[in-house]
Amino acid sequence: MSVKYKLVQRPDFSKGAAEGAKKYFAQMLSNGTVSFDELCESIAEETALTSADVKSCFDRLPRILSRHLKEGRNVQLGELGSMRLATGSKGSATEKEFDAAVMMKKPSLVYTPGKILQDMRTKVTYERIKSATAPNSGSGDSESPDEI
Predict the structure, then answer these.
(1) pTM for the predicted model, two decimal places
(2) Based on C-alpha coordinates, what's the Rg of the chain?
(3) Mind listing the pLDDT tens digit for each residue in 72-111?
(4) Whose CA is closest to 55, among 39, 34, 75?
(5) Rounded to 5°, angle at Cα 28 from 141 and 31
(6) Alpha-carbon span 11 to 25, nearest angstrom
(7) Sheet holding 81-86, edge to edge
(8) pLDDT digits (tens, 9 = 90+) for 19-66
(9) C-alpha–C-alpha distance, residues 71 and 110, integer Å
(10) Which stretches does DSSP call E strand in the chain?
(11) Which of 63, 66, 82, 139 is least surrounded by Cβ atoms within 10 Å, i.e. has the fewest?
(12) Which residues have CB under 8 Å from 76's CB, separation 6+?
């Protein structure tokens, strides 16, 4: 199965682009949504856990992650990857002038995928979906998918 995309025309904001210039960009199309219940059922089918056990684990995960991240820990999530907080601040001329309450920025949550998910990203193929309203460009494009 490949990731589907369509081409959309958007303004060209690249350096040196003429005013009003436009380019075509790929826009990924969703192939549906996996519900939380369906995800839990799928995990239950491949483990010794019941769907309720899986839901219970997912229910507790945000609370446990929050506690460890607030304590400044990086959290390893096995094959899923890891999570950590990252932040920055405004600068001050001297150490004494630095006021964390005012100068610290809101931390961001950084997720780093595990090896299986990283590998999946390198193996994705793409299939272009032709727009039904797009005129035929005459460029010789076939109706077959673009495999990249």
Answers:
(1) 0.70
(2) 23
(3) 999 999 999 999 999 999 999 999 999 999 999 999 999 9
(4) 39
(5) 105
(6) 10
(7) 75-76, 81-86, 108-113
(8) 999 999 999 999 899 999 999 999 999 999 999 999 999 999 999 999
(9) 15
(10) 3-11, 22-28, 75-76, 81-86, 108-113, 126-128
(11) 139
(12) 82
